[in-house]
Amino acid sequence: MVRLDNYLARHAAEKPEHVALICGSERVNYSQLYERVRKESLTWESAKGKAVIVRSSQTIDFIITYFAVHMAGKIIVPLESDLPDTRFENIKRVVEEHSIPEDISDILFTTGTTGRQKGVMISHKAIIANAENLIDAQRYTKDTTFIISGPLNHIGNLSKVWPIMMLGATLLITKGIKDMGAFFTALEYSSSTFATFLVPASIRMLIQFASDRLRSQSEKIDFIETGAAPMAQGDMQTLRELLPHTRLYNTYASTETGIISTYDYAHNECIAGCLGQPMKHASIQITETGNVACKGPMLMSGYLGDPALTHTVLRDGTLYTSDIGLIDAQGRLRLQGRMDDVINIGGYKVSPVEVENQAMSCPGIKDCICISANHPVIGPVLKLLYVTNDPATFSQKALIKHLKERLESHKLPSYYTQVDKIERTYNGKINRNYYKSQAEKPHA
After folding, report:
1. How many C-beta neighbours within 10 Å does residue 333 have?
2. Among candidates 118, 100, 102, which has minimal Cα distance to 110?
3. SS3 at position 77
4. Which fold does the domain 6-336 belong to in CATH?
């Protein structure tokens, strides 16, 4: 069985001086990386149990630990760096209580839409398939310098380590996009081919607060991938204008499915929710209920210690998601929202994402969420909570007019409320569970 850590020895022999990792002032070439991984792996070989639970960090040390655990024949369970001790111990107890299949390399914990802790088991085979999917679809090369600016215990950023290490390219680690200075400093490294992964919320920050600096780097940035949350079409169009020489990818992926499809909206139609054709090892189908289902070697192996929960989504090699979508005439996946989020209004099923995308295209809107509210006469209706760039001058009437020109009548919100912010999760997704819980609270 080929494993990702096998490539480190090859690169150490064939290109020992090539820079593998950069973080701040520290640089590690492939010869040094392999030796540090090999040395640390000896420690993990004698560790108790099959799994090694660690707090992740955006550091070279974490990357070395990640591969050292694999080289030692163990399974790594990377958790958030600031995870409370009580939850850390709970996860540790869960991992120790259950048997783990032999071919598993990583277990990534996600709370999902229900808030329940789920340990997603990922095999060595899946990691290789995911790496090959990205290399083939997004044209990674051995000259790519990939900037990591997000947590490495989630698949969005962790999955970018895989193709970089497979090719023997360079990984440049920063502490996060909140420090935009660090992001632009990373682009000063002597490389002609930069790439990065940014969630839509991070892209919006760059557009709003550093558009001129971003435009000045257009020649350097080979491609930017986004995912994890829907991206507003207005932001997509703005980014295309700022980076005319850059490939811009919107990718369909999740911890359970792996990396499935991608779409370059910079060099094709700019369509919100379009996620392109399936990658090299993936296939997609739409079920009778409109849900997206995926096949391929990049799928998870199952949920740790929960075969019943696994069977609800993974059956006969097909993973059934809660995402609603369609395949268009060009064979591209077009995502329309999640089954859990659909709002039933007068017999019509409305995806809040569609309403939000249109609201976000209105000049002056900074952020928004469409939720269900109760009308005293007609029952459930739509309500739009929105944040503006300039609350003092923004016209709610202009927003309503904007939506009326773009949405069917049953998709129009009945209520509009201007708020200071929209609650989001760590990776930029709208925190719909927060608003659902608020709606369920009894009124005084």
Report:
1. 24
2. 118
3. strand
4. Rossmann fold (3.40.50)
Q: Which segments in the chain show pLDDT lower than 70?
A: 111-116, 426-427, 440-444
Least Cα distance to 341 among 435, 261, 442, 423 occurs for 435
Report yes or no: 30 and 167 within 8 Å, Cβ to Cβ: no
Using the 8-state DSSP alphabet, how is residue 430 labeled?
Answer: B
Task: Say yes or no: domain 342-440 is CATH 3.30.300.30.
Answer: yes
- Could you tell me the two tokens for 244? 């005319």
319 and 131 Cβ atoms separated by less than 8 Å: no
∠ Cα 397 398 401 (to 5°): 85
Domains 6-336 and 342-440 share a fold: no
For the record, the structure tokens of 379 come out as: 């029952």
Cα-Cα-Cα-Cα dihedral sign, residues 66, 75, 199, 273: positive
Q: What residue ranges do the domains of the chain occupy?
A: 6-336, 342-440
Residues 322-350 have pLDDT tens digits of: 899 999 999 999 998 777 788 888 777 78
